[in-house]
Every structure is written in structure tokens, then in C-alpha cells.
Amino acid sequence: TRTSLNHFVSSSVLKMSSNDGAIEAERAKAGFYFVEEENPGVKIQMELNAILHKEESLYQSIQVIDTYWGRTLVTDGKTQSAQHDEFIYHETLVHAPLLKSGMLHANGEMPSSIFIGGGGELATAREVLRHSSVKRVVMVDLDEAVINVCKKFLPEWGGEEVATDPRLELIVGDAYNYLINTDETFDVIIMDISDPIEAGPGIMLYTQEFYQHAKTRLNMPHGVFVTQSGTADILKPPGVSPEKPDPTCFGPILNTLASVFDCAVPYATYIPSYGGDWGFVMAFQANQSNAEEAIQETCMPPSGLVDELLSQDITGGTDALRHYDGTCHLRLFSLPKATRSALAKDDRIMTKGNPIFMF
Length: 359
What we know:
Blueprint (H helix, E strand, L loop, with lengths): L5 E5 L9 H10 L2 E8 L2 E6 L2 E7 L4 E7 L2 E6 L2 E5 L3 H19 L8 E6 L4 H6 L7 E6 L2 H10 L5 H5 L4 E5 L2 H7 L6 E5 L15 H9 L7 E8 L18 H9 L4 E9 L4 E9 L6 H9 L5 H9 L12 H7 L4 H9 L14
Parallel strand pairs: 8-9, 8-11, 9-10, 11-12
Antiparallel strand pairs: 1-2, 2-3, 4-5, 5-6, 6-7, 12-14, 13-14
């Protein structure tokens, strides 16, 4: 889930005229565009085919628009999910950590209890509920308006079929407060939440203190925590002043989780509607192996294991998914050398007293 600023703009400026017919003719020729600021000084512009819905909730502006990427959910001006590639984001976020939990389990049992923080589109829950091993899902999202808008305008993301699944407990509320106060524990915790922006609702969900508590809500030794981690395009371009603060949080999220768990593993995938590679971080305990070996096993599991587990736990196996499988898994965890070097040089950690804000 992402956050920032967008504009709906016309390609031409209409001049004042007493001739209404001329004005209408000029207006008919004017093209409208969706413009999204991806990074400081970088904007992406595309034709805006339609604005299907727009409202202001208690927490954010919500739009459903139709663009080059198809139907698209936009909150506070930032693309959250697009028809063209939402499956890439959601399959990447969900399936790798669920399979890792099964690999960590002493008896090889796949996870049965899942917590989702955020996920208002219902697509994260959709992917979790594909797994036959899953018996209970608790999803806590702050904004009921987003859930309702997505059910109405983006039913393919999950819709009523997911919302009414008897395994899902859908709670409108604060994911941070829920996890702080619950006594329940889970096999996997998935954070599909807003980026850590200043004054944003999600900043506390990226802190060391929160991760320390979340660790206590995991069933050990097979518990797995995963969070979306913002853009993985973390190399600072030459056009950005060296004095400007780094607007990315992939490194700090990785470092912060690594300060709490034995193992924190970064991975990423290209999401066209996001304008580049998007990052995720998975965290867990090493159990009997050392941390380095456990991380290596995550990045490069035994040949055929990922596809075998998917076939055992998901009806249709890999054919049921559009993005994730054993081959894709290897690509997700094979970060480019320059990205790995940048992550190694980043030593920032996010705490309540020292938060780090993403652009």
C-alpha cells in the first residue's frame, strides 16, 4: 500500500470566450490525465479514461479511476492497486511467507492462522484463503470506506466472496492497537499497510517497538512476519541533491526487523503500475540452523519444493496463480548487486523516538 499526491489535469487550458459553442468544441478536444508523483522530481502521466468513484473518508481521499492500467484504486493520490498487475503485489506479499512458515514447522504443517494488518482491497485475504491449511484469518483495516468501495467497484480483488468467507474475521479498526491488545497468536502476520509517511496512520507499524511486540504474537518456532516495504529502487539518482534525506524505507525496514528477528530477508518484484521494483521484507527465527544458512534456504529452497507445497495446499497448484511459483521465487529473492550494496550500506533503524518517513 502506498501514499502521496496526484492531480487530474487537462492537456489544454480553455480560454474565456463569449462563444459557448467554441468553448464546448475546445473542451471536447481536451484530454484529461492522471499524474502521479513517483519520486521527488519524477512524475508519471497517463490518460484518464474515467473517474468511477471519488469520496473523502475519515482518513483519506479515495478514488477509483480507469487508466492505461485498467481500473485502479487511488488513495491520497497514490496508486494502491491496478487491474493490470494487482496480482503481482498480492501474490508476492502472501505466498512466500506462508510457504516459509510450513518449511519452518517441525512437522512440515502449513500455517492455519493468519493476521492481516490493512489489506482493505481484500486481495491479500483472497490470496491467503487460497490455502486449504488456513482455518482462521483476522484482517484489521482502519478505513471501512475503502473496503466498501473495493467490494463495489473492484469485486475481482476479492469482493463479497472473500468478505463473507467463514474463515475470515473482518474488523474495522486500528491494526496496531489490535495486535498490542490481543492475546491471540498467529502462524503468519502480514502487514499490507500504508507507507511510513509523516502524519500518516501507518508509521507506528514500522517501528522497532512494534516489531518486538509482533514477534510475541507469532507461534514459534514457525512464525513468520512479512511487510510491504516501499520502493526497492533505492539508488539515489545523480539529479537528487546529496544533502536531501533518503526518501526510501526499504533499508530501514530491513534493518529494523533484523534487530528483532534472527533472520530478515529482503525481496522485490517489478510492479508496472507502481513505476518500478517494490520491496518486501520477511522475518523469522533461525531455529536449529544459523541465521545465514536459514536466509540462504529462504532465498534458494530445494529444487521443486515451492511448487510441491503450492500443489499440496492450493487447489490447482501453481496454475491457480498468475505470478508466483518456484521459478518466480528465485527471482524475487535475487536482488540486483547495486541494490544489495545499497542495503548493506544503510544502517538506519526505525523507532518511536526516531521515525523515518518515506516520500
